[in-house]
Amino acid sequence: MKQRIEYIDAIKGLAIFLMVMGHAIAWNYDDYNAVCNFHPEQTINVKMGGDLVTYLFFPYAIIFYGIRFFDV
């Protein structure tokens, strides 16, 4: 049996957490365009939610891509 690399498991756990949080924030919006598109008339809540989704979605995709070869 292979020895598990603990920090790889921790990185995978962080990526899963970011994925769940990003989806939870995105599902709170009725209009998905409000999450991704930024218009001057949008309230600060919508703009901040869009920023959060952007900063949560992209890192976990990169993390999953980077650790996909580690079969632990």
UniProtKB/TrEMBL annotation:
Transmembrane stretches in the record are 7-29, 52-70
Question: Which keywords does UniProt give here?
Answer: Membrane, Transmembrane, Transmembrane helix
Decide whether keyword Transmembrane helix is in the record. yes
Name used for this protein in its record: DUF1624 domain-containing protein
Q: Which organism is it from?
A: Phocaeicola dorei
Taxonomic lineage from the root? Bacteria, Pseudomonadati, Bacteroidota, Bacteroidia, Bacteroidales
